[in-house]
Write the C-alpha cells for this entry.
Amino acid sequence: MSKAQTEILELSYSARPLRYGVLALIGLGGVAFGIYMIVVGFGTAWSMVFMGVLFTIVFAVMVFVAATILTRGGGGLRLERNGFTIRSPFRSAFFRWRDIVRFRVMRTTDLRHSVVFDFHSSYQGQRMLRGPGRRLGYEGIIPDNYGRTADELAELLNEWRERGS
C-alpha cells in the first residue's frame, strides 16, 4: 500500500430500502392514477386529461428518483490529503481543505444536528449555492453524519482539514 492510499478515508451511507421502496410504490400508484385520469377524461373532460398527464409525469419522476437511489446506493464522503468529496447518487462535489475555514455543528432547518462549513473569503466556487446557506448561518453542509454524531464528524473533518492545509 502506498502512502497516498493510506491517507484516504471513505465514509458512506446506504439508501434506506424501506423508505425508497415505499416512495417507489407511492410513485407507481400515482402513475396508475394519472393514466386512469387520462383514460376516463379522454374525449369528455380535457382538464382531467391534463391533470392526468401532469400526475403521470410527476409520479414517474418520483419512481425514477427512488429507483436510482435504490440501485446506486446512498452516497458517501471521501477524505483525502488535499480535500474531500461529497458523493450522492446524482452528483459529486470536491472541496480543497485550504478553501474551508472550519467545520462546525449546527441545528439545521429540519431540526437535526448537521455538520456545516464555511469557505475562506478568497474561495470563488459554489457562488450560487453559498447565498441561501449564508442566510441560514453556513455556506456548505455535509448531507449525512455517516453513522457518527455530528460532533464526532465535525471533529474528524477539522482534524483532516488541519493536516491538509
Notes: The chain has a mean pLDDT of 83. The first helix runs from residue 3 to 6.
